[in-house]
Amino acid sequence: MQSEQTYKFNVKMSCSGCSGAVSRVLEKAKVDGVTEYTVDLPTQEVVVKGTLPYDDVLARIKKTGKEVISGQIVNIRQPLSLPFNMPIAKPLSQGFKLVTHPHVRFARPFHASAGRHDLIAAPDPVSHMRPIIYDDPPSQLPAPLLRHPYSLSEFRSEAQDDTGDHDLQFRLLRQQLDSLHQNFWLDSNTRFYAARDAVLASLPSTSTTRDKEEALSTFYQQWVMQEKNWTDNYTREWRNRNIQLITLSARVEYHKFKCRLADLFQKST
């Protein structure tokens, strides 16, 4: 079932009879998913809340014979918060493909392990992000620490391996960053497509291609301005997490490099 949405229409109503006709069709629509509505004659504004799709609500208002000048989906956006849930991964048969890990060729002079491969699927149809299953080697943390329910910084012991600690933090942060991208663009594009379709649906049936292009041009400009703060916040969050990810990655590779050099010197002696 579709989640509850709020729609706002600018309807041409000249008298109480016009507003009454709109109110009656919306009252009847309550059995199909409309939960509440307001019809304001002075402002020519109709606000509808419910699970009924936008196109259905628009069609019912138009059946009264009143001209719908414009319509839009009003979105109440929630702030981004952790944890971000990862999208459900598809099986290999549903679109994932093997991609050679880009760092394998640099690791081979110091390590003789087999090459690793990540699984990358086709872009999500809405967010356009590519889901990834990372082919990471087993963590170097001891098994009891991998199952520990608390954060990595608690109950540390001197014997705990810093390399495994940083490596696990790196994987967790990378997963959260992938989820940040997926959730942001899924939300943004879902609202964008719905708002764009609402603009097109509000145009008269006699609209020409040029009329539609002009309406969409205005819509695109308004959308960019409307989403600016939301997009700026996402960009800042993305930048901060990338800095953390790069720092952790550098620490992991530095510790691994020291271990490989130590192994080489130990074998040479």
TrEMBL record:
GO cellular component: mitochondrial inner membrane
Keywords: Membrane, Metal-binding, Mitochondrion, Mitochondrion inner membrane, Transit peptide
Membrane-topology annotation of the record: Peripheral membrane protein
GO-annotated biological processes: intrinsic apoptotic signaling pathway
A GO term for molecular function: metal ion binding
Gene3D superfamilies named in the record: 3.30.70.100
Record-stated family: Belongs to the COA8 family.
Name assigned to this protein: HMA domain-containing protein
Record organism: Gymnopilus dilepis
